[in-house]
Design goal:
Blueprint lengths: L5 E7 L2 E8 L2 E8 L10 H4 L5 E7 L15 H14 L5 E6 L1 H12 L4 E7 L17 H4 L8 H8 L10 H11 E4 L2 E4 L3 H9 L9 H4 L6 E6 L25 E6 L6 H4 L1 H13 L2
Parallel strand pairs: 3-4, 3-5, 5-6, 6-9, 9-10
Antiparallel strand pairs: 1-2, 2-4, 7-8
Length: 284
């Protein structure tokens, strides 16, 4: 049977963060999710580490964590990672981040170096330096998200054969829905509502989201894993927005390009994601 995590609310930086903790062997694996997701999106990856201490959390604005009013700065998410790592007394953990989570754990590692011994960044949406300094204007698809559902079953039936969810592991899709909806008005609403999610996307290219000065201070091994499959460049949920030369900006960076997978590859192939993490652990 899969392990069930302990859950708690941790107060940091003036908000409450929901933390999911699977006790086990050290060093811990510390998971950071993408925009619009939640900590339990990692359940099927964690299942590949039955003996390992694993920690995931719901970022501000997501899941069971506090949802302050916009704006949302990507730099704030990184500061939350550093504060949470301090609260949890992380030491030498393997930081794993997908999309926004990859950006966040990178900044968190720069702000609190002792917390991490290696990073595995799954398409971390750290862009080319010259892309920062403006707001991203391709967020209409987020603001149009349906935010009211009669049941989790209705959402699953709606999503299971639609892009980008049709390529996901089926259990991960169920986990996404189980923890991505919260009861409201006799039905359910998104745990990361559109009025929160859209400003996060918009600020991805803001000047404050440029963390290259902090990247230059990260001395631990960093594995950047980029998505290479892109059937439709207009589908921003599947397209990699990570600059191809990101790895060379880290003192000990290396790069892997997954030609067969999209930006959402941790949801498409949890075994592959687990193998990449296990490789990082083996190199410590």
């Amino acid at each position: 049977m899969p392990r069930s995590p302990f859950d708690s609310l941790v107060s940091i930086n003036g908000i409450d963060i929901a933390v999911w903790d699977w006790p086990g062997e050290e060093p811990a694996v510390f998971f950071c999710h993408a925009t619009g997701f939640h900590g339990r999106i990692w359940d099927q990856v964690v299942a590949h580490f039955p003996e390992r201490h694993c920690i995931a959390f719901d970022a501000r604005g997501h899941g069971r964590s506090s949802k302050p009013a916009p704006p949302y700065s990507w730099r704030t998410f990184g500061a939350d990672v550093a504060a949470l790592a301090e609260f949890l007394e992380l030491a030498g953990a393997i930081g794993v981040g997908h999309s926004l989570g990859g950006h966040s754990v990178t900044l968190g590692a720069a702000l609190r170096p002792s917390a991490f011994s290696a990073l595995v960044l799954f398409d971390p949406v750290i862009r080319a330096k010259d892309e920062y300094g403006r707001l991203w204007d391709r967020t209409s698809f987020v603001r149009k998200r349906r935010n009211h559902w009669t049941s989790r079953e209705e959402m699953f039936e709606r999503f299971e054969n639609r892009s980008p969810f049709d390529s996901w592991d089926r259990q991960i899709l169920k986990d996404y829905i189980e923890y991505g909806l919260v009861p409201a008005g006799g039905g359910f609403v998104l745990a990361c509502p559109p009025e929160v999610e859209a400003p996060i996307y918009e600020s991805s290219t803001a000047a404050a989201s440029n963390i290259y000065p902090e990247i230059a201070t990260v001395a631990i091994p960093v594995h950047v894993v980029r998505a290479g499959r892109c059937e439709d460049p207009s589908d921003v949920m599947k397209t990699s927005l990570t600059t191809p030369d990101l790895a060379v900006n880290f003192a000990r960076g290396r790069d892997t390009l997954l030609l067969e997978h999209s930006h959402l590859f941790p949801m498409e192939a949890p075994q592959l994601a687990a193998d990449l993490i296990a490789n990082a652990i083996s190199l410590l």
